[in-house]
Amino acid sequence: xxxxxxxxxxxxxxxxxFASLVPLPAFSDNYIWLARQQGLAAVVDPxxxxxxxxxxxxxxxxxxxxxxxxxxxxHVGGVLExxxxxxxxxxxxxxxSLPRCDIALNEGDHVRIPELDLSMxxxxxxxxxxxxxxxxxxxxxxxxxxxxxxxxFAGGCGxxxxxxxxxMADSLGKFVTLPAETQVCCAHEYTLANLRxxxxxxxxxxxxxxxxxxxxxxxxxxRPTLPSSIGLERDTNPFLRTRQVEITRAAAAxxxxxxxxxxEVFAVLxxxxxxxx
Length: 277
Description:
Elements: E1 21-26, E2 30-37, E3 40-44, H1 50-59, E4 62-67, H2 73-76, H3 79-86, E5 89-93, E6 103-105, E7 110-113, E8 118-124, E9 133-139, E10 145-149, E11 152-153, E12 156-157, H4 165-176, E13 183-186, H5 191-201, H6 206-220, E14 228-229, H7 230-236, H8 245-255, H9 262-275
Parallel strand pairs: 3-4, 4-5, 5-6, 10-13
Antiparallel strand pairs: 1-2, 2-3, 7-8, 8-9, 9-10, 11-12, 13-14
């Protein structure tokens, strides 16, 4: 969907793509994704209970499911209160310590909630944490959706708290192969900072420049920059482009040495982003 107020040539999905999918702000920059259908709801990574409870009250929704991607407190802090107050079933990664998990998931598992018209495949995506998972599928039969937690951000990716560069590069590689129209539902509003860094890596990228302008407009209007899309990330996110000449050259110049593999390129990019001001 072409956003009508975007600069020319930039295809930015934006939250209006989904009447049934809503980003609920939490803390200073988190989003809790809420999917709704005919009075029922599911949420992804509720770090706080109150934004979810408020949305349920305001829209007359019953919470049926809670989907977790990893164990960090800003993603799971509201789980116990929500599950106890609503009876929602909690789905989460099998290899992480969670406040509650009714159904433990690994790659190859499938989450299907017919009453919400929600159908999701589970992907193992270690890197940010050792047992991080993501959910890819459809809600209400519309464009494919990716709930990626803290693995992929618009213009960036998660820090490596528990995994290795090779693991994170492999995890991001799973996302690259998804359909271009896949809506990328990241868990944080980091877009402007990420795109400032991405332009330092790839200053000649016109699509990236236009995306940054559009993201600025959205934030000035108090609107989320998310969801992004896999197609847009493939065009603009350096972490998904470690095999492309312009990115490998920039990373080698930053490192001051030749780089012999996409994983080496990724590792340099991650360190660059860690220290970028």
